[in-house]
Amino acid sequence: MMHMGNFGGMGYGGFGFGSIFMILFWVILIIVAVYLVKMYFGKTRQEPGHETAEDVLKRRYAAGDISKEEFNERMEVLKKT
Q: What is the pLDDT of residue 81?
């Protein structure tokens, strides 16, 4: 039987490639989990003061700045893009 030295058969310094891949696996898993959580919760929350183009159009129509025809035309343009 061959003697492997003082490392217990684990390779150099007792730190083999299996440990590296296990750490890499957990790092990738955590990154994916954080990404998915951000995507899921990021869509429901909107930054304060951030208005979409539709919100601006609705506000301008409600204030009387634009006519109903102009509002409808611009909404159609927004829906196409």
A: 74
Q: Could you give the CA distance from residue 46 to residue 52 in angstroms, rounded to a whole number?
A: 10
As given in the structure block, the two tokens for residue 72 are: 């409808």
Quickly list H helices, 1-81. 17-42, 53-63, 68-80
**Domain boundaries in the chain?**
15-45, 48-81
Q: What length does the chain have?
A: 81
Dist CA 37 CA 15 (whole Å): 33
pLDDT at 68: 95
Q: Which residues are CB-contacts of 75 (< 8 A; sequence separation ≥ 6)?
A: 54, 57
The Cα–Cα gap between 27 and 48 comes to 33
User: pLDDT tens digits for 1-50?
Assistant: 455 555 555 555 555 667 888 899 999 999 999 999 988 887 655 566 77
Tokens, residue 51 = 């208005």
